[in-house]
Amino acid sequence: xxxxxxxxxxxxxxxxxxxxxxxxxxxxxxxxxxxxxxxxxxxxxxxxxxxxxxxxxxxxxxxxxxxxxxxxxxxxxxxxxxxxxxxxxxxxxxxxxxxxxxxxxxxxxxxxxxxxxxxxxxxxxxxxxxxxxxxxxxxxxxxxxxxxxxxxxxxxxxxxxxxxxxxxxxxxxxxxxxxxxxxxxxxxxxxxxxxxxxxxxxxxxxxxxxxxxxxxxxxxxxxxxxxxxxxxxxxxxxxxxxxxxxxxxxxxxxxxxxxxxxxxxxxxxxxxxxxxxxxxxxxxxxxxxxxxxxxxxxxxxx
Length: 302
Ligand code: ZN
Description:
Bound molecules: zinc ion
Distance between the termini: 26 Å
Largest sheet: 5 strands, mixed
Cofactor: Mg(2+)
GO molecular function: ATP binding; fructokinase activity; metal ion binding
Pfam families: ROK (PF00480)
InterPro entries: ATPase_NBD, Carb_Metab_Reg_Kinase/Isom, ROK
Structural class: alpha/beta
Catalytic activity: D-fructose + ATP = D-fructose 6-phosphate + ADP + H(+)
CATH architecture of the largest domain: 2-Layer Sandwich
CATH class of the largest domain: Alpha Beta
Oligomer: single chain
């Protein structure tokens, strides 16, 4: 039997599970709607159990929606914690999987794991300090500093930074239940839809919505650039599937920086500095396989 790794991208609307060893070697994959934890985790376990008939699964990695507890030394490691998603608060995801399979479980935020995927096989190969941002239903950010996935007190919540909001230009009050017009509140997919009356994918490229959206995305990106000095900014998520917005963001970022960051990477090459994920929508599930590989290595060293 061949040895493979399990990867789970646990999202608020769907779970993607795969077994394999990397982007060129995915042996099986399944997509499940996110229902209750009992139903969804039950189906996840059924999928991996069926795969175990053909493969030896050496470890499983989880890229989870959050907030989560990613601290391996914590009593609630691998929990989805205070999420507003009905039924999912305080769900012990990692422990449930460990109990079912008895293999090492890696667990981190969806964005940190997508960052790991891009670092392993995508746009961030060879870099040690970079950020991965998802701009979709929510806004979240993860990445690496000095070669380590970003953690800390809990984990970064980059989507909830405050950005300037010109109420005259944009009287919309924002979607965030905690802060109203934080970055996520002004620039996530639901804000785009509510403000303009149609979802992003139906707004044509020349629509004024995109200039404002690029302005907001750039405000968040420049703040993050100032704070962590990333060598690369990867922008993924549903809103960023409208790729015509990238040039607008490049322009806005350069104009907001106003020449202050004196790196040729930004001054001359901003279009290869702020980029879509090289793995497309697969950074999360492939990153989860990379996280499983790490979890096995960590377990072998201890
Ligand atoms: Zn917020």
